[in-house]
Amino acid sequence: MTPEPSLRGARDRRIAELEARIRRSSAVGVKIPVALTAILLATALLVLEREETAYFFAPRSPVDLGSEGQYRLERLESNSYAQLHGTPTVRGAFWRERKGTFVLVGVLGTPIVVRRKALAGEDWQAGRVPPQPDQRPFAVRGRLLSAQDSPQYRDALAKLASLGELTRPPEGLWLLLEGERPSSSFGAVLVSAALLIFLLVNAALLWQAIAQRFEA
Predict the structure, then answer these.
(1) Contact at 8 Å (CB) between 66 and 140?
(2) Using alpha carbons only, what angle is made at residue 194 by residues 190 and 198, rounded to the nearest 5 degrees?
(3) Are residue 131 and residue 156 in the same domain, yes or no?
(4) Is the pTM of this model over 0.85?
């Protein structure tokens, strides 16, 4: 016996409704883990960029750490813009990057090591004995970091400290990155802004997916 047209239509509508609900539930099930993964990834990257972003908003006027015999080491603060005048240590560490040759050299009477570009007369080739750093007193401005906040330099800082030319307070050594002003971190701010937008978009998608799950 053939079903009545009205019954057949009701059955078809019910089947279509169930199929739509299955498709919607399946899509929601995919959206939730994808959105959660995106949120976790964006959060992790924001954490990695937090110091760079924070430095962009640091005061533009450098903290004066003083000069020979009058250092103000109580002003040391990681991730700040600072300046000092001092006499370099006799020994330093040299290495090459795409931008040229760089030097790590300590400041006598302080726990501070300066990273700067090699000067004229400090030419060095890998595999050769490094020259003595330029011994003229110098003034320098840049980004100040504690050794804990600059892990990529930790071994080099420890090696320089072992030579006995630096003071080493209980809180450890410090690194001054010559020429790095707060404004140089603008790229990090753009990256963090993009990551934050990405995080918020995925949070909205997650909220929408959860709401749809409860409606289903």
Answers:
(1) no
(2) 170
(3) yes
(4) no
Q: Are residues 113 and 95 in the same domain?
A: yes
d(CA 36, CA 124): 50
Question: What are the pLDDT digits (tens) for 137-157?
Answer: 999 999 999 999 988 898 888
Structure tokens at 24: 């919607």
How many structural domains is the chain composed of? 2
Question: Is 198 found in the same domain as 167?
Answer: no
The two tokens of residue 49 are 């960029």
Residue appearing with tokens 């726990």: 111
In a shared domain, residues 71 and 163: yes
Is residue 108 domain-shared with residue 23, that is, in the same domain?
A: no
The model's confidence at residue 49, banded by pLDDT at 50, 70 and 90, is: confident
Q: Both 94 and 134 in a single domain? A: yes
Residues counted in the chain: 216
Q: Which domain holds residue 136?
A: 63-180
What's the rounded Cα separation, in Å, for the pair 5 and 22?
26
**Any idea what DSSP says for residue 62?**
P
| CA 99 centroid distance within chain | 20
